[in-house]
Amino acid sequence: MSKFLEIKQLTIGYSNPLVSGIDSSLELGEVGLLIGNNGIGKTTLIKSILGQNKLLNGEILINGKAIQELDENQIAQQIAIVFSKAEIPDNYTVTDLISLGKYIHYPYYFQLNEADKKEITEILRKLNLSEFENKKLTELSDGNLQKAFIGRALAQNSPFIILDEPTTHLDEENKLMILSLLRNLAKNENKLILFSSHDWRLAKEFADKIWWIKDQKLISGIAEEVILSHPELSQPTILNFNQSFFPPMIDAPELEKEMMFSYLQKNFDKDLRKFKLTFKNDFWDLNSDKFYDNYHTFQEIKQALEKLLDTRDIN
Ligand SMILES: Nc1ncnc2c1ncn2[C@@H]1O[C@H](COP(=O)(O)OP(=O)(O)OP(=O)(O)O)[C@@H](O)[C@H]1O
């Protein structure tokens, strides 16, 4: 069976390559989560899949056809895109926006036929947006606005939907709502969903596959397997807010590791990479090449580290 999206030996970028040697695929009914640091090439990859960027090498096949051989309209029949930074058209209602999804099927000026109207009513219902059908977009909550943009993608009726950061700017409850909506679309309507996210820790619970851009390569596979085989993904350093803080090695279950990281990051503007903390259920081991002791509380660990750093500064 051929994969709906197939990428072979692909290099993407501009004058210089950003990511090379990409070999991967996704099938209808799957949810793929695209992650990677800022500026690493996520949007560039999305644009390449949409045929908007010249490929530096290799190929992208959509339903067996090379992307370069499809014209704009043929691509729109296969792929709908939801950009999170989309401009909100002034004076548009929710129904107007969703109706725009039908545009690709008509010439410049069009009027919706009865079947289209029925379909849009059905999309509004499915997205729980019926009560807002005549509301201006500018009056919607962020969560409902995001749903309206997804509604436009659904009206386009393409089997593949790509979303750039669909959960950014949403509160936790709306994030979960959008993520389950995306998963339901894949599972109940056999859509292929590929979305990028900075909230990937949450998003991974809803994704079948992870596509992770790192060191100019794409690491891809079943979400859980990618995380298991790349310990740095489960290291909390990915949530580093404090530029001059470098965490010690923390050997502990995920939650304890995350909490210890969070506590140290708030309390130290320092490089702690010389130290290692090991969780032993009832206490924590703290050691470096010259030191070893154990502690029961976070505060004891903080005091010990402060003392050790002080001593080191004097020496
Ligand atoms: N049209 C362009 N010409 C040249 N370089 C570009 C162009 N567009 C983007 N870049 C550069 O390519 C790199 C990757 O950008 P891209 O937008 O793909 O990253 P990203 O992973 O989506 O980042 P973010 O998470 O911040 O959105 C950046 O260094 C960016 O400056």
Automatic annotation (TrEMBL):
One of its GO terms (molecular function) is ATP hydrolysis activity. Pfam families: ABC_tran. The keyword Nucleotide-binding applies. Keywords: ATP-binding, Nucleotide-binding, Transport. Residues 2-240 form the ABC transporter domain. It comes from the Bacteria. SUPFAM superfamilies: P-loop containing nucleoside triphosphate hydrolases. PANTHER family: IRON ABC TRANSPORTER, ATP-BINDING PROTEIN, METAL TRANSPORT SYSTEM ATP-BINDING PROTEIN TM_0124-RELATED. This is Iron complex transport system ATP-binding protein.
